Fold this sequence. Notes:
homohexamer, mainly alpha, 9 helices, 62% helix, globular
Amino acid sequence: MTQPIARRFPTPALDRLPDDIRDRILAVQEKSGFVPNVFLTLAYRPDEFRAFFAYHDALMEKDSGLTKAEREMIVVATSSANQCHYCVIAHGAILRIRAKNPVIADQIAVNYRKADITPRQRAMLDFAMKVSRAAEEISESDFAEISRHGFGDEEIWDIAAIASFFALSNRIANVTGMRPNDEFYMMGRLPK
Amino acid sequence: MTQPIARRFPTPALDRLPDDIRDRILAVQEKSGFVPNVFLTLAYRPDEFRAFFAYHDALMEKDSGLTKAEREMIVVATSSANQCHYCVIAHGAILRIRAKNPVIADQIAVNYRKADITPRQRAMLDFAMKVSRAAEEISESDFAEISRHGFGDEEIWDIAAIASFFALSNRIANVTGMRPNDEFYMMGRLPK
Amino acid sequence: MTQPIARRFPTPALDRLPDDIRDRILAVQEKSGFVPNVFLTLAYRPDEFRAFFAYHDALMEKDSGLTKAEREMIVVATSSANQCHYCVIAHGAILRIRAKNPVIADQIAVNYRKADITPRQRAMLDFAMKVSRAAEEISESDFAEISRHGFGDEEIWDIAAIASFFALSNRIANVTGMRPNDEFYMMGRLPK
Amino acid sequence: MTQPIARRFPTPALDRLPDDIRDRILAVQEKSGFVPNVFLTLAYRPDEFRAFFAYHDALMEKDSGLTKAEREMIVVATSSANQCHYCVIAHGAILRIRAKNPVIADQIAVNYRKADITPRQRAMLDFAMKVSRAAEEISESDFAEISRHGFGDEEIWDIAAIASFFALSNRIANVTGMRPNDEFYMMGRLPK
Amino acid sequence: MTQPIARRFPTPALDRLPDDIRDRILAVQEKSGFVPNVFLTLAYRPDEFRAFFAYHDALMEKDSGLTKAEREMIVVATSSANQCHYCVIAHGAILRIRAKNPVIADQIAVNYRKADITPRQRAMLDFAMKVSRAAEEISESDFAEISRHGFGDEEIWDIAAIASFFALSNRIANVTGMRPNDEFYMMGRLPK
Amino acid sequence: MTQPIARRFPTPALDRLPDDIRDRILAVQEKSGFVPNVFLTLAYRPDEFRAFFAYHDALMEKDSGLTKAEREMIVVATSSANQCHYCVIAHGAILRIRAKNPVIADQIAVNYRKADITPRQRAMLDFAMKVSRAAEEISESDFAEISRHGFGDEEIWDIAAIASFFALSNRIANVTGMRPNDEFYMMGRLPK
Lengths: 192, 192, 192, 192, 192, 192
C-alpha cells in the first residue's frame, strides 16, 4: 500500500514490538484479515497502547445494558462531530456490521438527529453529544431527560464513558493523522 | 466530610473493591494523607479504573522531555478550557508543588496566554489547547511552529497525548460531578 | 418503500404535476433507475422547482474550469459542515462516480483537511468552506491565496456559487427532512 | 458614480447582454429610476441570473399567506445575521416601503428580538433565523412552536425557502463585494 | 409617544431627580430638541448615571488623536456586533453627523469590513472588534499590527477604552430594553 | 518587585498624579498594605480613573439587596468567562474574604454551575452570565426565571450592572495586560 498508516510519527516495525503487543496485533490480523491502523500507530508507545485498548475493551466489548451496536452509534456520532477520519470510517464499518444495517452509520455520521433510530437511541445520542461537546454544562435536567427513556446508572455511565473515551481517541487520531484502512469503507455495506 | 465525593453515581466502599484497586488507594492515602476523590469515583468501574490510571501514569510520571511541571501545565490549561472542577483544582495543586511556584496554576487556569511562562512553554500550551479544542484543524503549520521551539516527536506526542487524555478525564469528572478534595485548594501555596 | 420521501410537507402525486416537471422526473428515472427524492420534495412548488434545477444545472453540469468531480467535492464538503443528509449522501454518490474513487466522498465528508486531494483542491475547498460558513469575512487575502493555486475569476465564481447554492439546498433539505434514496448509499463504491 | 458596482468580478456592459436580461434590467430601471447593482453583478452569468431571479420572484412577489412586508422582514433579519451589505440595505429599503414604516428595517437589522413586531412575526423570524443559522437542528418542536402562531404548511415553507434563498444570495453578495446603490439608503424613510 | 423609553425598569419623573442630573438632562434637551432615552433610563440610578456620563464624555468628547467621527465608528461597529438597538441607532446618527456622511453608519453597522473607510480606519476597527469580542486573545501581534498604521499609545488606549465602555453600555441597553428615540433614525441622512 | 504592573502602557509616578487620585491610592495602600495594580494602571487617564472607581463603588460597596459576597461572585464568574487575570485573582481574594469561604472563588472561577452555592445564587449567576455573554438574547423569560427566585427590580439591575461593568473592566485589564498583585493569591485562604 502506498499510503502511510499515519501522516505523523513513525510506525514501529512489528518484530521490534513487545511480545504482548505483537501478539495482540497478530490476533487481530488473524481475525480481521488486516491490521487496523490504530494498532500500529499506537504501538509507538507500548504503555499507552496497553492502557488504550484495555479501556476500549472495557467499554466496547460489554454486552449488557447498551447493545454493541448502540455503543458504536455513540462512537460514530461523537467522532463525526470531532471530524475524526479514522474513528468515523472504522467504527462506521463496525456499526454497520453490529447493527446489520448498511445505511445507519452514514446517517448518524452526517446528522444523528435525522437518522432512522428509536427515540430512546436519540436520547442516548443527545446525552453522548453533550458529554462530547459541552460536558461542563451537563446538569440534573440532562440526567432527568435520559432517565425518562429508561436508562439507568449503568447505561448512563457507559454512554458518558464511551463519549469521553472517544474524545481522547479522536484527538490522538487527528494529531497523528491516522488513516482508516481501505478495507473499512466497504465493510458491512453488502448483504452477506 | 459532609460533601459527597461525586454528585452522581454511587461510590463503592473500600472493603468491597478488588485487592489491587484497594491497595493502590491505600498507598495513595499513605503517601498523600488523604484519598483523592478521583480514585473513589472511578472505582465504580474497576476495569476502567485500571486502564485510566495506567494511561495516566504512562503520561504524567515520565521525566524525560517535558518536565513534570510542564505536563501539569498542560492539564491545568486544557482542563480550565473544559471547566473541570476536579482537574483544575487537583492538578493546580500538583502544578504548584512540581513547579515550586505558588501562583503559576491560577495564572494558567485563568488565561494561559498571560501567564509568566517561557515562550517555549507558551508554544507547548498553544499546541495543547488546539489539540484539546480543535484537533480536527491541526495541520503541518502547527507542527512546524512547535518544532521551531525545539520540541521533537517525543515531546509533541506527549503534549498531544496529555491534552487528549484530559479531554477524557475532564468529561468523566464533569458528568460524575466529581469534587476536588478540600485539601487541594491550599496545597503548594505556602513556602515549605 | 416504507420510509417517507421527506419528513415534512406533502409530496405531490406524479400525475398531478405540470407536464415539464413530470417529464423531467420521468427522464431522471429513466436514466438513473429511480427518482431522487429531491425532485419529488421540491415538486411541491413548481416554480421553485424550475428555478432550483435551472440554477443547479448551470453550476453542476458545466465541464470547463473545475472538473465535475471537483464541483461535487465542494458540495460534499459544505453539505457535511451543514449536516445535510440528502446532500452528503446523494452527492457523495455522484462524487464517487465522477471521481472514479470509492473512498473520496467519505474522506471529504468527515474532514476535508485530511482527504487525499491535491493542494489545489485543498485550496478550493478552503475557499468554498469560508463562503459557506463565514462569507462575511471573505477578503482580498482569500482571493490572493486561491489565485496562487491557479484559479481564475471563472473558477472562483464557480466555487463560490456552488458553495452558495448548496447553502440554500442544504437548508431546504434539512427543513423538509428530505431523505436520501437508499440507492445512493452504495453507488460508486464497487468497481464496474 | 465613482464607486464600483461590485468589488470583485467584472460587470458586463448592458449592450452585450442577452436580450431577455437586458430587457429585464431596462424594465427595472424604468420602474425604479436606477438599476439595482444585483442585476448588473449577476449578469456576469446569464443562466444563473435567470435562475436567481426566477427563484426570487417565486418567493418574494407572492401575496398570499405572508404579506410582502413580512417576506422582507425575513430577508432583513437573516441578511443582517450574515452581515450582507447589499441585502440589508436594499431589502431594508423595500421593507420600509412595503411596511410603510420608516424605522422597522433598522430595528430588525440590529436585533429583531427587540423590534416593534407582533408575537406572530417574532415567531416567524425565530423560525427563519434557525433555518438560516442552524437548519441542521430544526426539529418537530420548532414546527410545533411556529404552528402555534397560526402558520400553516404553505407559510412555513415560504419562511424556510426565503431564509434559504437569502443564505445563497448573501453569500454571493459577500463574495462579489456587491455594493448597495446609494439610492437605497434613503428610500422609504420620509413620508410621501 | 406611545412607546416606552425602556421595556424594563421604571423611568423616574424629571422633577424627582437630583438637581445635577435634571440640569444635565434639560441641557441636552435644549441642545438636541429632545431627551435621548439613555438619560432617562440611567437616571434610575443617579450615582451610576454620573459615573456613566463622566466616563462617556472622557472618551467621546476628546478631539485629539482619533477624530470624533472615528470614535463613533468604533461605537457603531462594536454595538452592532452586540446587537444593541439604542447604541447602533443613536450613535449611527451621531456618526453620520460627525462624519458628514449619510451612508457610513449603515455600512459599518452591517459589515465594517466592507465599509468605505480607509485602511487605517479598518485597522482601528479590527482592533476595536477584537477588544469587544475576544479581548482575552489580544497579544503583541495585535499591537504590532495597529502600530503599523500609525496609531500610538494614546490612540490605542482610546480605541480599547471606547470598545470596552460600549461593552458595558450595550449590555445595560439590552437588559433594560432601552429604545432609541424616533428622532435618531433620520438624523444626518439629508444634506443640510 | 521585578514584574511590571501592566504589560502595556506606562504607569505614571505617584507624585505626578492629581491630588485626589494620589490621595485615593494612598488611602487604599494604608488600608490594604499594598496598592492594587488596577489603581496604578488606570491612573494613566485621570478622568477615566475617576469615572471607573465612582461606577465601581456605586455597584460594589452597596449592602442592600445582594450581599457584598454575592456581588463578588458575579465578578468572579463573569471575569473567568472573559479570562481576565486581574479580575479573577483580585476579586477572587475579595470574594473569599467577604464570603468567609476559602474555596468558593476557585469553584466559581472554574465552573460556577458546579460551585457550592444556593439555587438562588445559581439563578443570579445564570442571569449575570447571560448579560455578560449574550445580553442581546435577554428576554422576558429570563426576567421571569430570576424573579421566581425572589429577585426584585433593584437586585436584577444590580446583577446586570455588575456583569456589564466588569465586561468593561475585563477588557481594559486584558488589553493593558494588567497583572494581579502577588498579595491577592493567598488572601482569604487561611483561617484568621
